[in-house]
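ugh ok fine here u go
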Amino acid sequence: MKNLNYIAASIALISLTQLFTFAQDVHFSSMDYSPLTLNPGLAGAQHEVNATLNYRSQWNSISTPFTTIAAGADMRIKAGNVSKNGIFAAGINLYNDRAGNNSISTNNVGLTLAYHLKINQNSTIGLGLQAGFIQRTLDASTGMWSSQYNGIAYDPSISSGETFGNPSFARFDVGAGVVYSLGTNERNMRANDGMRLNAGYAVFHINRPSYSFFNSEDDPLYMRHAAFVNASFGISNTTMFIDPGVYFQLQGPSMEILIGADYKVMLSDGSKMTGNIKNSSVALGVFYRNSDAVVPRVIYTYSDFALGMSYDFNISGLSQVTRARGGVEFFFRWAMDGSFGKTKSRI
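structure:
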């Protein structure tokens, strides 16, 4: 047991140390439920109004958990006849990320402006620009340092000898993304012959802001490249859907590939005349993150609301210590569909 505790403490220390070696953005396993952290071009791409909440807690099996709380909202903006050929959209997203014993805290707020050009009745292409601020703080007194190891065990009474010239700072940040959206036919419980497809590419931290606690301008934040393709296919003459997705992110030496699918079943079809009956569905999915985790998830949707949960079962080299317990994630979405020009938006 002592060996296990020592290994756990060592891993927690290594994880904290890596945050100084190179910075990596927060990430969610259910990326499609945090759209503006995935691609600024997703503002207004899928819904008239869209709002999301996310909560993630990770590594509580080996240390004080890393927690991330995020919120975002976007909406389409109609002005005169602009909606006939395209539409503007705006959004805001923010998150707070805490690593370990509140040693490192990161806050981010971003404002997004997007424009979606209508290619034809079923497809659009959009460009989104995002600008905001990153604020980061460090409380070195709560950290565990190798210099505090007395040869037998960790001794917090030993001075770490660590000094930081810039324990709190804020930086301007810029990102951009392009998104293609396609939606065909009306989806309902009788025909169920619809299809939705979204694909995009984005770059974050284009201006590469400094991310150092040491007052050094030689430690710029790596740009994060994010690409994705997700879709929803109705199985004709059934109440079932297959919703696959592939997500790729690259930031400096860190690469992430997430691939999987949801199996969704419609429980009821909303009445279009009175609106008294609301559409509802339940989805079960499994995703795989390269050499890291298997992520099952469940999502329940009722009318304009969706509530879901996912869990990362760790399969990397850390699994011997974590016992496969990675992180839990909860997400919520409120989405109101509207019209794009004269066509009901299904994308």
